[in-house]
Amino acid sequence: MAGELSPIDKAKFVAAKRAAQFVEDGMRVGLGTGSTAAWLVRCLGEMVRDDGLRIKGVPTSSRTAELARGVGIEVISLDEAKWLDLTIDGADEFDGSLNLIKGGGGALLQEKIVATASDQMVVIADIGKEVESLGAFPLPVEVIPFGWQTTQALIEETLISMDVLGRTSTLRMNGDVPYITDEGNHILDLHLNRIGNARQLALVINQMPGVVENGLFIDICDAVVIGYGDGRVEVRDINDGTVATERLDFVESDNLFSDLSD
Ligand SMILES: O=C[C@H](O)[C@H](O)[C@H](O)COP(=O)(O)O
Question: Record-annotated residues binding substrate (predicted)?
């Protein structure tokens, strides 16, 4: 029931519901991963089922692919789509320039490839994800399993030489075993506290042997839809500088909202 959802879940839901309005008939859409993106996929599934919306979705993880198929969205690969009209995804942090940390759910690699292959990327997030400076959320870095400890040591040494605060990293675990991404890799989470120069850090990390990709999304996101627990949503567009706030009045009555609480 709607009343059982936390304010954060309500915020994620309204952000996703509002962002779904950006999706037009015939579009090829990148489908993000995570709890906020899952709301988006459900909203789009409802639009496909009830409004006859025809879209082709490119999922950014096996989890999202399964959910998208389950709600009736036609799923295609990025190679089939080649280029996307729009990608909508969650984020772990976003700053005032709409630079992001992503990968808290382990899907950063496919997410970055898909977002970069899109005309537009829209992030959906609850207001708690906004930060003045990126880095309080541990920065995920996808590394190949071969020699991961050597890669980790190299990353840590480099962070020290760059005088980046924090300097520790941990191998992400799934219970007692290392977490494995969809691409068969591991994730190192870098505990940095605050990232001064995110652009430089992203470039330096990606130059290291063993690193596949990092979770910093710089100059990729075009707009953010921010949800609040009371049903308000704010849409900020970095390209034209517009900010619009509205309240979605369907919160308590929406079928998805009352049926699902994941
Ligand atoms: O790897 C996961 C993704 O980058 C997610 O989009 C990110 O972690 C945000 O997830 P959530 O919406 O569950 O907070």
Answer: 33-36, 89-92, 102-105, 129
- Whose CA is closest to atom 12 on ligand 1? 36
Residue 199 lies in a domain: yes
* pLDDT tier for residue 240 given thresholds of 50, 70 and 90: confident
CATH of residue 114: 3.40.50.1360
Could you tell me the residue range of the domain that residue 152 belongs to? 139-213
Residue written as token pair 């494995």: 180
Indicate if ipTM > 0.90.
yes
**Cα separation values, 33 from 69, 148, 151, 213, 238, Å:** 14, 25, 26, 16, 22
Going by pLDDT thresholds of 50, 70 and 90, the confidence category of residue 253 is very low
Domain-located, residue 52: yes
